[in-house]
Amino acid sequence: MKLVFVLFDSLNRHALSPYNSSAIPTPAFERLAKKSVTFNNHYVGSMPCMPARRDIMTGRLNFLHRAWGPLEPFDNAFPEILRRKNVYTHLITDHYHYFEDGGTGFHGRYNSWEFIRGQEKDKWRGIVSPDIERLKKEYHPLVFDGRTDMNANLPYVLSREVIKQEEDFPLVKCFNSAFDFLKANASADNWMLQLECFDPHEPFFSPEKYKDRAASDYEGPVLDWLPYGRADLSGPESRELRENYTALVKMCDDYLGRLLDYFDENNLWEDTALIVSTDHGLLLGEHEYWGKNRPPFYDEVSHIPLFVHDPRAQQYAGQRREALTQTTDIMPTILDLFDADIPTEVQGHSLIPLLHKDIALRDACIYGQFGGAINVTDGRYTYFRYQTDSSVTLYNYTLMPMHMRTFFEPIELREATLREPFNFTMELPVLKVPVLVQAKANMLSRYPLLEADTVLYDLADDPEQKKALHDADTETRMAALMVAEMQAHDAPPEAFRRMGLGENH
C-alpha cells in the first residue's frame, strides 16, 4: 500500500463546490470527489492547529486535558506505529508550528521531513533593524500594527517582502517537493507521504492571478489578515478579506489539480490511497464574527471536508457517506490501510468499512478548545455547552510543560502536583498544572471567549445555526451524549464540574 495524505489548514467546507453548488468554483475538488468517497458529516475534534494535529496523529481527543502543546511520551503516533511495520513515512510541511516549543515531538516521528519556510509568523528572515514606520504605512493595522514582540505579525511582513513570484510561495514549494518525492520513489512500495499546506489559513496571500479585482473595491494598504472575533470593518475591508480568502482557495484547488494530474498520468489511482482534509474552518463574517477560537464553534469552523480514495474500493468512487465522523478517525484509517494494529486507547474509528457501506460509527462526537465550550453533535443537532461554574480550577495534564512558544513559567510549575495515570497515559502519572490567570502564555486570558451562552441548534431546520432551539428533552439527550463521550476519553473531574454535568465521573 502507498498513501498520500493532503492536509490543508482552515479550508472551509462551504467554500468548496462539491459541498456547496454556490461556493467558490473548485474544479479540482470536484474531480477529487468523483475519484473518492466524500464524507458529508465530518467534524473537528480538538482546536486549533496543533491540538487538531495531535488528534489526527493519535486517534483521540486532547482538548479535555490540556491546551496547545507537544506530543506526549505516552502518545501512540501513527508514523511511529507505521515505522515499526517498515512503512516509510515522509512529512512535507510549511506549518511552522511544528517547529515551535508547542510542536515538539511531532515531526520527529516520521522517517524524514521537509520544512518549507515563510508562512505566517515563521521566524525565518533575520532582519535586525526593519523599517517599522514604512511597514506600518504599507500594511493595514490588522496585518501589522508596529508591534515587534514574539507574538507579533512582523515575521510575516518581512517574509512577504521576498515572496514575489509564484514559485516563491510556500504552498508551491510544498507541492513541488511532493512531486519530487513521488518521482524519486516511483518504484517503491509501503510508504506514506503527508503533504501539509498552511494555506488557506491567514494571511490570505496568493499570486495576483488568483484574485478577482472586480470583487473588491478596497483601495487601502495590504489587508490579508483577519481579526479574531467581532470587528468594525467597512464594506470594502470585508470584501477584500473575503476575496483574498477566495483567491487562496483557488490556489489550493489549482495545485490539488496538479496532484490529481500526476495521479492520472502515472496511474496512481490503482495502487495509491489518497486522503484530503483540513484541521478546521473559520468564520468570514458569518454570525457577525471573524476567525475562530473566540466565537462559538459554528459549523463554518467545526464541520469540515473529507475525501478518501482507497484503490481497493474504486467501485465506490463518487459516492457520499452520511455517517458522523471526525478528525480522530484519520489515524485508525491510516493504520487500517497498512494493516497495522490500532492501539487500545484510540477512540477514533477506521473509515475503510464506510467506503463500502454507509454505516453508523458513533452516536455523537464532541469537539472544542481547552477551557472553552464543550460542543456535541449527533449529526442532526449541535449543542454548545458553556461553563456553569467559573470557580472551578482548570488544569493542564502533561509530561511536556510547554505552551505554544514558551516553556511553562515557574509560577505555573510551582503549583504542579503529580496525578495518577489516565487510561491513555501508558500507566504513567502526569503533571497536574493549574491554569493561572497571571501566566503570560495563558491563552484563555489572551483570547477570552466572546459568547458563553449554552445553545442548541437543529441543523435540519436551521442549517445556518441562526435560531436557537428551545427543547428541554433534546438538550437533556445531547448533554447525556456529551457526558458519554467525555467519559470515553477519561475527562478529568473538573471538566464535568465546570459544565454542570455532575461530580462523580
TrEMBL record:
<keyword id="KW-0378">Hydrolase</keyword>
<dbReference type="Pfam" id="PF00884">
    <property type="entry name" value="Sulfatase"/>
</dbReference>
<dbReference type="GO" id="GO:0008484">
    <property type="term" value="F:sulfuric ester hydrolase activity"/>
</dbReference>
<keyword id="KW-0479">Metal-binding</keyword>
<dbReference type="InterPro" id="IPR017850">
    <property type="entry name" value="Alkaline_phosphatase_core_sf"/>
</dbReference>
<protein>
    <submittedName>
        <fullName>Sulfatase</fullName>
    </submittedName>
</protein>
<dbReference type="InterPro" id="IPR000917">
    <property type="entry name" value="Sulfatase_N"/>
</dbReference>
<dbReference type="GO" id="GO:0046872">
    <property type="term" value="F:metal ion binding"/>
</dbReference>
<dbReference type="GO" id="GO:0005737">
    <property type="term" value="C:cytoplasm"/>
</dbReference>
<feature type="domain" description="Sulfatase N-terminal">
    <location>
        <begin position="3"/>
        <end position="339"/>
    </location>
</feature>
